[in-house]
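Help wanted!
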Amino acid sequence: MKTWVPGAAGSAYDVDNLPYGVFVAAGEQPRVGVRIGDLVLDLAPVAAAAMLEEAHVFEQSTLNPLMGLGKARNDAIRRWIVGLLVEHAGRADVEPHLVPLGDVEMRMPFDVGDYVDFYASEHHASAVGKIFRPEQEPLLPNWKHLPVGYHGRAGTVVPSGTDIVRPMGQRVLPGSTTGSAPAPVFGPSGRLDIEAELGFVVGTGTTLGARVSTAAFADHAFGLVGVNDWSARDIQAWEYVPLGPFLGKSFATSISTWVTPLAALDAAWVDLPGQDPEPLPYLQVDGRAGLDISIEVSVNGHVVSRPPYRSMYWSPAQMLAHLTVNGASVRTGDLWASGTVSGPVPEERGSFLELSWGWREPFAVGDQERLALEDGDEVTLTYTAPGTLGGRIALGEVTGRIVPARP
Amino acid sequence: MKTWVPGAAGSAYDVDNLPYGVFVAAGEQPRVGVRIGDLVLDLAPVAAAAMLEEAHVFEQSTLNPLMGLGKARNDAIRRWIVGLLVEHAGRADVEPHLVPLGDVEMRMPFDVGDYVDFYASEHHASAVGKIFRPEQEPLLPNWKHLPVGYHGRAGTVVPSGTDIVRPMGQRVLPGSTTGSAPAPVFGPSGRLDIEAELGFVVGTGTTLGARVSTAAFADHAFGLVGVNDWSARDIQAWEYVPLGPFLGKSFATSISTWVTPLAALDAAWVDLPGQDPEPLPYLQVDGRAGLDISIEVSVNGHVVSRPPYRSMYWSPAQMLAHLTVNGASVRTGDLWASGTVSGPVPEERGSFLELSWGWREPFAVGDQERLALEDGDEVTLTYTAPGTLGGRIALGEVTGRIVPARP
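Answered by r_m:
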């Protein structure tokens, strides 16, 4: 199966990848495209010419209508697109609708319904425990029984490339007390951080009261995005008891502009590292529930970490099963993210909090050092996985630059 | 100013109230209506006949387009509606479009963007502290410095009248341990509870990075809804550390089908009970920032509590200012709720957790007793406030019945 598209065969965006996104060409309306090599295939005119029943979903400014078609129709559409790109017969009709990536602007790919963030890396959760509660068991008692998670702010999920304004807020500075009571001050966060995560997008929703079993994961998850869940640790530390993170997270969460369909990950499934104690029945999974996705965290062009997604304790199918076990419904466009991905060794830590071990040990960023993010820093997350053609596919990257707080 | 609408003058839905909702009459499309007395005025045909510029917003199945018009246009539309209902000249054109409430079905009034739940009652937060941490200060150190809040699930906000399915989930039963470690079991929640709250709906949104000052509250808040934030306390107790409530809340949150515009509350503003320590500058308010709204909690027709909203520590303007101080944007349809409203005395507690003082003291529901909600129980929250015509206006009620868990 070889594509005729110039430069695409053997690249990280070969026909075994084919992520979807929403692009804008100069002077035109936003539309749905699929990436092949360094080109975007403008699907709307091609689908209209082919009289594809669902052609209208490509004329939209979000992927939601496409994602909501369901797994069977989406699998068929993917086969149709692969056919377009490998069969020479129709090449003359398709080639005029390939647009160089450099000629388009990528937009927010879908309308986010609810956004849930999990905490599914044992290495990350343990590191946080060791940093903040060194005298105690690093994991809290519930951690190995359920995928701990919480709701984040859907309205501030932004596409890769959006500048991140350093948030203002309440923090308690060292020694800032009135008598023995903490005395918060207002100002720009001094502990701005990243969280390198993987996100999952709902295609087919459910009705209130229904539960999604771990076996039904692929019927409801449309695809994957890269996620950087920006975090203001000083704001978070002061606000988070007892109801969890709020303003320390809600100022921005960046996602990739490309959504990789689940089908592109067929060769990436691996066994989980192992779960002990055995989870309750509704959380049990058969076979390969983990994903072998490699993440690279770069700051100002320097790689600072390589978190391995395959080291995650809880699988995406378990996260979705847990999220819905109380009958909560999901909608097309709902996003859930894994939480910070961190591996067992220091070079695999997915946050500055861990890389600096609680802001105590500066780490190298090229010939500079960092504890937390500084204004002007640009962070880029890239993701790769085994493709079904034997090489590696790239998931869309997530990038963002820190700009100074607004006074 | 007296309305000609039969039965409306002097009622709790007089022309100083005029809440909006989305109604469906038999065989017709959902449309926007306004309540007067026990009738719904079908605004779309009246606005079309009057050639009102914004007539299209009444032909929608949600209030979002109306709410998004902004304060100035909404104030003008309200004056136009009052005119319709008090001036006899146009009565013959308006009266045919008044539909008895009994002939329509009320729908979910708006699409919820993000849903944030606060924890703004000192009496409630203190009671929770005394129940769960009797040896310690009832309030955590941050509580009087900021309105503690978190994101809830927007996709499971349901309209009043929706049955509430008892959620299943993980809980740790008394004595349920493996060695010294807690051993959770899966099953229906045995500690199902209410939270009697007041909700605020965003009309005019903001862009990412902007902050809403406490003084700009009325420019962004469109109106109020009643809120019952159903809670499964046993699920919540096990899951909530360290990221806050998740499945213990996300199965359902009920809101009133009527949205009361802020303008209807002009006579309800009162001073806050007092804030000590003085909040940081961005949280300071001038004048009457509290609301004199009386809530009544009924279970199976028996009043069990009367929480007074005027006893709330944090004001709605402070909640919105805090929510956006980090630059988080808000959208038309965003909902934020106050958290459980509880007054200083037992008969004013807004949750079963407090009414039973931590499930220890059964309380009377008619000639029965309750600790937590039982299957078949129906809970109704009603809200009243001083109107501008000298009487009291009613805010839409919130009702829901508990149905058994799905196995």
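OP: Thanks! One thing I noticed: The mean pLDDT of chain A is 97.
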